[in-house]
Amino acid sequence: MLQEIPEGKWVAAFRRALKLNGIGAGTDVAIVAESQSRPVMAQLCGLALYDLGARYSTIVLPSPAQTAPVPVKSTGASNAIAGMRHVVEALKQVEVVVDVTVEGLIHAEEWPEIEEAGARLFTICNEHPEILERTEPQAELGPKVAMGIEMLRAASEMRVTSKAGTDLFIDIRDAPCGGTPGFTTTPGGVAHWPGGLCLCFPGKDTVQGRIVMAPGDMNLTFKSYLRDPITFTIENDFITSIAGDSLDADLFRDYLAAWDDPVAYGLSHVGWGMNPAARWESMALYDKRDVQATEFRAWAGNFLWSTGSNQYADRFTLGHFDLPMRGCTIHLDGDVVVKDGVLQGDLA
């Protein structure tokens, strides 16, 4: 079992990552944690911010009571600040919010108000520091991620295929596009560590086709590799069929059904990973308690799709899956950007 203490090498990694996010002497920063956050995360942030000369404070919120019928994981939508008006007002006064909550504030309902005030968000995902050390943000990834986002914005259609049988069509005209290399210096910007992905949120009635997840593809909500294939039929953005006679398929069906919410079956976002430091195989080497599994959203060349909330299609739910796949080919208006799981051209 890995220990969680403030190692000097991790303080150094946090210092470099925070500096890459534009934090230096005199920067006003708020660290936001909650009672179930890894204590070492706020400790490492504080030590690194002190070294950088930032003016910082730490807010520790109580982790909310559970209200869902099943465990809620990997949402990026912490509700720890829900109803905490004094906290929201405090965060509007700083330049940078360093987020070490369990689920992250990226999709929190309160974030847009804080963002409008000019604060930028750096979410450090709830991973063991060893994982963060290995996936430390690098400046050179910035231009490549920006290029991928622009390619998405310029395209009208995404098509995803695989040798396993995936054949998915997505109309991405006017779809909000984004992503992060793991850092931002823009007021109101959002970044997370591990970073390195390009994605978009398809609008209503824009996703059709078939997705076949194969052994070795990943269910990040369950923090597991698939052992058996699952075939999904997608009609007008929603999963209408989950085919498979296996534990993997049963778990998927039962978890979605537990929400008793049709929106949980809708697609949230689609995209691909860009980070060469993120490794598909590394989850096999960690205990589940050591990972939040955000590294695997970003490994270079994956196809990432997710179910659950899509605010741009007016769909909201706590039910959520992040599902990165290997060996897919991704076309944008016929141009191949990922071939059989390998980034192409200037993205590579």
TrEMBL record:
One Pfam family, short name: NicX
Organism: Aliishimia ponticola
Single GO term (MF): metal ion binding
Keywords, sorted A to Z: Metal-binding
Name of protein: Peptidase M29
Domain of life assignment: Bacteria
Keyword Secreted: no
Keyword Metal-binding applies: yes
